[in-house]
Structures are given as structure tokens and as C-alpha cells.
Design goal:
The protein is 5% helix and 49% strand. It has helices spanning 186-192, 217-220, and strands at 4-11, 16-20, 26-31, 40-45, 51-57, 66-76, 82-93, 105-113, 119-128, 131-142, 148-157, 165-171, 205-206, 212-216, 234-241.
Length: 242
């Protein structure tokens, strides 16, 4: 268990409540602005406290039926690193946890890590109704202070789109010297693909452990993010710390 866990984040645009199970694993993130692109998140763990399923959906709890935005199935290697991630998009879930077979988009991710357990390479292959559409090849570069400096993406379109290839590079903003809020949860770092030591923003205040308490959410909203997708304006974090 980490020293501090996020209890809630209040922002001008949307707020989020973080819930944990009896083992201290992040069980759900519930938003007050439930809509397309900003679903609730639910997490399932194995006996080794590894997240094996992540459900982004429009139900109020994991036991309810409802529309599904994304559904991750995660696979691990012997070093407990996520090396396979199959993501199903646009489907549904019955009460009791049965995922309906209405998904029409699948993304298969193969992942590589460095010696610091940071994701540094990812291959995302996207299929629609069994037909290969495109693949994105990502490279994540960290600087000497342990922060994600930039991301390179090379996209390869399927043959029906001429097999074209293009690439781009995304640079991150300057970091503070305090502890990144994402480091309170390993699955948060994974979903946002950012294992940085510090925050890519400067908080107006920090707690005694160096975690951000009040900050401009527009500065957090930088880079790839699946957690807190609708955060905006002024943000305030409440932590539970041991």
C-alpha cells in the first residue's frame, strides 16, 4: 500500500471519488459528470493484487448493468509487469458482471519496460469486427530526473487505407520537483502511460509528502490520459495518508 491514496479530486469541470477495497487496492473512480468520454472506472484484481480487468462504463457500480466505454483485460509476465492489454470498445455489461458480445472495436497492446519498471514501448493494433485497421508504435522517452520527456508515435494504416505510415512526436511540459499524483496508484500510471517521478505542472500547495493539493487542472490535462479525462479549471485533492 502506498503512503498516500487519493480520496477525492474536486475540479471546476468534474469531480472524482476514489474507492478502495479492504486490501487497499483501487476499486473504482466515480465521477459526478458521467457522460460520453468521462465514464466511471472499475478495477478487478487477482490474488496477487494485480489489476486484471479495468471497466470504463456508465453504470453507478460494478454490479449494475450498463453501457461500456472500454473494457481492458490485462496479462502479466513473471516480473508482474503488464505485457498484454486487450481493450474492447463500445459494448455492454449485464448485472452480475457478464460482458455482452456487442463490442465492435478491439485494441491489442504489447508492452515493454525498462529496468525502472517504466513502460517504454507499446504496440497497439486496432481491429474492427475482425478486420485489421491500423497499428500505432509508441516509444516513451524519460529524462535524467525520471520524467517522461516526449512520446514518439508511428502509425501504420491497414491495406484498405493504402498502408500509409506517418509519425509524430509529443513533448511534455516542464515538471515540478514534487511527487507525481499518478504515483499513488500503479494502475493509474499504466492507464495514462506516464511513470514520471514529478508532475507536469506546479501546484499552488502540496501536502507533507510532497503530493499536489491545489493546481490548475488545465496543466494536468497534458499528454495521454484515461484517468480523470474531464478534469478542468481549479482542482483540489483530498488524500488519505498512513
Amino acid at each position: 500500500t502506498n503512503i498516500c491514496q487519493v480520496s477525492s479530486i474536486e475540479s471546476d469541470a468534474a469531480s472524482y471519488v476514489f474507492n478502495y477495497n479492504s486490501k487497499g487496492d483501487l476499486e473504482s473512480i466515480i465521477t459526478n459528470r458521467l457522460n460520453t468520454g468521462n465514464p466511471n472506472l472499475f478495477f478487478t484484481y487477482d490474488r496477487r493484487h494485480r489489476a486484471v480487468e479495468v471497466l470504463s462504463g456508465f453504470m453507478a457500480s460494478a454490479s449494475e448493468a450498463g453501457a461500456v466505454w472500454f473494457y481492458h483485460k490485462l496479462g502479466y509476465n513473471t516480473a508482474n509487469q503488464i505485457v498484454r492489454d486487450t481493450v474492447y470498445q463500445f459494448g455492454g455489461k449485464d448485472a452480475g458482471g457478464i460482458i455482452r458480445s456487442s463490442f465492435h472495436n478491439e485494441k491489442h497492446s504489447l508492452l515493454q519496460y525498462d529496468a525502472g519498471n517504466r513502460l517504454v514501448k507499446a504496440t497497439d493494433s486496432v481491429w474492427e469486427r475482425g478486420v485489421y485497421i491500423y497499428a500505432d508504435y509508441f516509444t516513451y522517452k524519460y529524462n535524467a530526473t525520471g520524467n517522461l520527456e516526449y512520446m514518439i508515435r508511428e502509425s501504420h494504416n491497414g491495406p484498405q487505407f493504402g498502408g500509409s505510415i506517418y509519425s509524430d512526436t509529443f513533448w511534455m511540459k516542464p515538471y515540478d520537483t514534487k511527487l507525481s499524483i499518478r504515483r499513488t496508484s500503479r494502475i493509474w500510471m499504466y492507464l495514462d502511460r506516464n511513470y514520471s517521478v514529478n508532475n507536469s505542472f506546479t501546484s499552488a500547495s502540496y501536502n507533507s509528502y510532497g503530493l499536489p493539493v491545489q493546481f490548475n487542472a488545465g496543466e494536468y490535462w497534458y499528454g495521454f490520459m484515461e484517468v480523470l479525462p474531464a478534469i478542468g479549471g481549479n482542482a483540489t485533492v483530498i488524500y488519505h495518508c498512513n
